[in-house]
Amino acid sequence: MSQVPQTDRSEIRRGRKFDQVIEGARKVFLRDGFEGASVDDIAREAGVSKATLYSYFPDKRLLFMAIASGECERQANEAVEFIYAGEKPVDEVLRYAAKVLIDYLTSDFGRQTYRLCVAESDRFPALGEQFYASGPLLVRQRLTEYLRKAAAKGEVVIEDYDLAADQFAELCKVDILAGLMCGVMGTLTPERRKRIIDGAVEMFLARYGTKR
């Protein structure tokens, strides 16, 4: 596995064995991480041959990003279910969104995904593109959807929804991103997490909230 092909993942043949590969890879990557996971282990866990695995994903990095994309989508869907389950005040929704984002960024899997993309995106642009689509772009889209609804209810006043969504996401990375990039993140204590979440929500609503 040396090069990441520039292919559209939607064109991959789907079926029972593909689902087995995805589920097996998810278990191995979540258990062993990117570096610790071997193709042999993934094929064994999935119950398929290495030839079958390679027919779907010719490069381990591409397979890892497919799993990372799936995890991002799963967490985003769970967040949407929470957000729209009943009428919740805007500050409660934003605190929950911040928690989901921070928990993923600081998880072992999230850290490995971020570092892999930073390290390999110059040589393999497909990885960077896939990470952006399943991470920052997905966060922006889901936040924008919610902020438009909040604005319609008079809870926020926003002109540029994409910018506001990006600003909130960046506020949630304060005191996290630099450490993540340099591999010196350390432990995120409950007190430190609360400080970041409170600061992000309060600053965002100070700019866009209607109750100031």
UniProtKB/TrEMBL annotation:
<feature type="DNA-binding region" description="H-T-H motif">
    <location>
        <begin position="38"/>
        <end position="57"/>
    </location>
</feature>
<dbReference type="GO" id="GO:0000976">
    <property type="term" value="F:transcription cis-regulatory region binding"/>
</dbReference>
<keyword id="KW-0238">DNA-binding</keyword>
<dbReference type="InterPro" id="IPR039536">
    <property type="entry name" value="TetR_C_Proteobacteria"/>
</dbReference>
<feature type="domain" description="HTH tetR-type">
    <location>
        <begin position="15"/>
        <end position="75"/>
    </location>
</feature>
<dbReference type="InterPro" id="IPR050109">
    <property type="entry name" value="HTH-type_TetR-like_transc_reg"/>
</dbReference>
<keyword id="KW-0805">Transcription regulation</keyword>
<dbReference type="Pfam" id="PF00440">
    <property type="entry name" value="TetR_N"/>
</dbReference>
<dbReference type="InterPro" id="IPR009057">
    <property type="entry name" value="Homeodomain-like_sf"/>
</dbReference>
<dbReference type="GO" id="GO:0003700">
    <property type="term" value="F:DNA-binding transcription factor activity"/>
</dbReference>
<dbReference type="InterPro" id="IPR036271">
    <property type="entry name" value="Tet_transcr_reg_TetR-rel_C_sf"/>
</dbReference>
<dbReference type="InterPro" id="IPR023772">
    <property type="entry name" value="DNA-bd_HTH_TetR-type_CS"/>
</dbReference>
<protein>
    <submittedName>
        <fullName>TetR family transcriptional regulator</fullName>
    </submittedName>
</protein>
<dbReference type="InterPro" id="IPR001647">
    <property type="entry name" value="HTH_TetR"/>
</dbReference>
<dbReference type="Pfam" id="PF14246">
    <property type="entry name" value="TetR_C_7"/>
</dbReference>
<keyword id="KW-0804">Transcription</keyword>
